[in-house]
Specification:
It is globular, with a radius of gyration of 23 Å. By secondary structure, the protein is of the alpha+beta class. The protein contains nine helices and ten strands.
Length: 283
């Protein structure tokens, strides 16, 4: 196993759970897809990532997987791999996230747990304009609709770093988004640090900015300073670190800022200065 593949295995297992990507015989690995009750057999050639991995097929499909779901997952994985693979770049994290985005999560639903339609309102209630609360569908809370833009994963001495950012319009919304992320993602919740920062420009040019180190001393302030230098507004970022057992010293701050900036760029929050670009082109 070459160093780049070893780092990718370390990153995938740190983010999605132990044995999410497990070595099998020779150069074959078993990938247990997060959010799906299906695993795939993948061969990584010695030249990977200079040459692409080969998906050999379905290893297992769980008892709760509906007929045809495993084949759909395999097809989606192959399509994403063919579209996202770039020679020389590891790609598995991006492919997994793409599959998670385009396919619904495998859910276990028993007949007893299925929601029954609410009983019709009584004649008197209907005539008076009153109806039971269950007759009105509830809307999904805004914080459950948040779309995070993820940075590339960085692995350094077995510590794994990843940043995610999303637009925000108020401090309360930023706090709600963070809380929902921690409540809904067990791996993020159990990470060593979740460093946050946001800058918001509200009505009447009222501005808000805040940050949190989450135990990584001074990291939040450095990320906020980066956002100030980049002149970013109405966006929040969460940088997650899983500690790998080796102290990185000051280098960790460089990595934290690198993944944060990568998330901002991928999310479209960074606007290139056209005048600066023209000056740069002059000789």
């Amino acid at each position: 196993m070459n160093e780049e593949l070893a780092n990718e295995v370390e990153a995938i297992n740190s983010i999605y759970g132990d044995d999410s990507l497990a070595a099998g015989e020779g150069d074959i690995f078993v990938l247990r897809l997060p959010q799906h009750d299906t695993s795939l057999r993948i061969r990584f050639p010695p030249e990977y990532p200079a040459t692409p991995p080969a998906v050999l097929g379905i290893e297992t499909s769980g008892e709760h997987t509906r007929k045809g779901d495993a084949a759909n997952i395999l097809a989606a994985f192959l399509e994403a791999l063919g579209r996202l693979y770039v020679p020389g770049d590891v790609c598995l994290f991006d492919v997994i996230e793409e599959v998670n985005n385009v396919l619904p999560t495998t859910a276990v639903v028993s007949i007893d747990d299925e929601q029954q339609p609410p009983p019709p309102p009584s004649k008197g209630a209907a005539e008076s304009g009153l109806a039971t609360a269950t007759a009105t569908p509830t809307q999904q809370p805004p914080e459950q609709q948040v779309q995070w833009t993820l940075s590339d994963v960085v692995v350094e001495l077995k510590s794994v770093f990843i940043a995610r950012c999303t637009p925000v319009s108020s401090p309360s919304q930023a706090k709600a988004y963070l809380q929902h992320l921690l409540d809904s993602d067990k791996k993020v919740r159990s990470a060593t640090h979740n460093i946050t920062a946001w800058r918001i420009k509200g009505d009447h040019n009222v501005t808000y900015q805040d940050c949190d180190d989450d135990g990584e001393t001074a990291a939040g302030g450095r990320v906020l300073h980066l956002m100030q230098l980049m002149d970013l507004w109405n966006v929040m970022v969460v940088i997650t670190r899983w500690y790998g057992g080796h102290q990185l010293g000051p280098k960790r701050f460089s990595i934290i800022n690198t993944v944060a900036r990568d998330a901002f760029v991928k999310g479209g929050f960074v606007q290139e200065d056209s005048s600066a670009a023209k000056k740069k082109g002059k000789r």
